[in-house]
Amino acid sequence: MYYYGKSDVGKKRANNQDSYTVKQYKCGAVLGVVCDGMGGAHGGETASATALKAFTDAVGNMMKGISGGGRKPTDRRIAEALLDAVGKANTAVYTKAAENEGLEGMGTTLVSSLVFEDRIFTVNIGDSRMYLIDNDKIVQVTHDHSYVQYLVDIGKMTEDEAASSRNKNIITRAIGTEEETEPDIYLTEIKRGSGSDSIHILLCTDGLTNHVDKKAILKIINSEPMGDVGAERKIVDSLIDAANKNGGSDNITAVLISV
């Protein structure tokens, strides 16, 4: 597996409230995580960094057992561990906000994929996304927890209307804004399509997707021959450059994992 991640402040913001990590464990599994903070300059930055650390620490504890020669976990065990990690991230952010008046109301999105053997386990809360790219197909695996997505779901708004709505940044679920939170979890089996050299997992904030649509993302990803040294870095750089060229109105973060 190959991977690369990058975060950029964009062209309009004074500071970067996104956080991310991508890492490989001794057992070969790869974890990618992206968070997009909210709640003022300091609050958003604190929320995303706090959630990222709490989540990755919790996942890391599970992976230590696997890397140390422990019994291979079932799909259910991995899913439960990821949901528990989200709960720990939520508690960490919520507690920190309660203890500091200046951080009141802060929160963050979180999207994460754990690639373990031929499985991809993905959790999300908020409107940061995971896309799966296989050859000439791109699929948004996660479902946005946002006001406009809710309107689309109930037939009150089209997807095109949602993309241009002034309310598209209103999210309906987040890490840290309530004592408990409800993430979604997805299990994807890796099945390679005809002629596919690699399957790509893209984790990203809305700073990317607000300015670069799915077709453009697919074109950029397919512009680099997989297997070339630095291909993932070039793709992520190109995605962020495209978002900035199209406005760069928010922080932009992207993590690409190729399997």
What does this structure look like?
With 259 residues, the chain is an alpha+beta fold. It has one domain: Phosphatase 2c, domain 1 (4-Layer Sandwich), CATH 3.60.40. The protein contains seven helices and eleven strands. The strands form two sheets. Strands 2, 3, 4, 5, 6 and 9 form a six-stranded antiparallel beta sheet that branches. The longest helix is centred in the first third of the chain and has 27 residues, at 41-67. It is globular and about 45 Å long.
Short description:
By secondary structure, the chain is an alpha+beta fold. It contains seven helices and eleven strands.
Given the helix and strand composition, which structural class is it?
Answer: alpha+beta
Number of strands: 11
H/E topology pattern: EEEHHEEEEEHHEEHHHE
**CATH superfamily grouping:** PPM-type phosphatase domain
Query: What ranges have pLDDT less than 50 throughout 5 or more consecutive residues?
Result: none
Number of domains: 1
**Gross geometry:** globular
Compute the CA-based radius of gyration: 18 Å
CATH architecture: 4-Layer Sandwich
Give the termini distance in whole angstroms. 5 Å
- Strand fraction equals 25-35%
CATH topology: Phosphatase 2c, domain 1
The average pLDDT value, as a whole number, equals 92
**Main sheet summary:** 6 strands, antiparallel
Which CATH C-level class is it?
Alpha Beta
What is the number of helices?
7
- Percentage of residues assigned to helices: 25-40%
Characteristic terms for this protein:
single chain; Phosphatase 2c, domain 1; 6-stranded antiparallel beta sheet; 5-stranded antiparallel beta sheet
